[in-house]
Model the fold of this input.
Amino acid sequence: MAIDPRFALNPVRKFFAGNELLVKGCLETEGGIHLLTGYPGSPVAGFFDILGDIKDLIQKNGIRAFQANNEALGAAAVNGFANARLRAIAVNEKAVGLSQKGRIA
Done:
């Protein structure tokens, strides 16, 4: 599958969905990202579809990308990369809206 040309850097105006912007931002981070992981759930489930669509670009940039079996494993992978002084991101959100912990009674 060809890489979506919207992920290439050029001055033409383009439109992206939120998950696409999350991936694009990671790819454009100065110093690079070394790991993209997490556990799929709404609204970030599309994040992993995008990674699959641009897997050649991910591999070319030496980025490790995988879907974790649960939120804890995604967070543990990020922690491991951080301990090695490498940049990582995990997407683990499962619902739209406010956290119940932050709810005002």
User: Anything to note?
Assistant: The two ends are 50 Å apart (CA to CA). The CA atoms of residues 8 and 91 lie 23 Å apart. Confidence is low (pLDDT under 50) at residues 98-105.
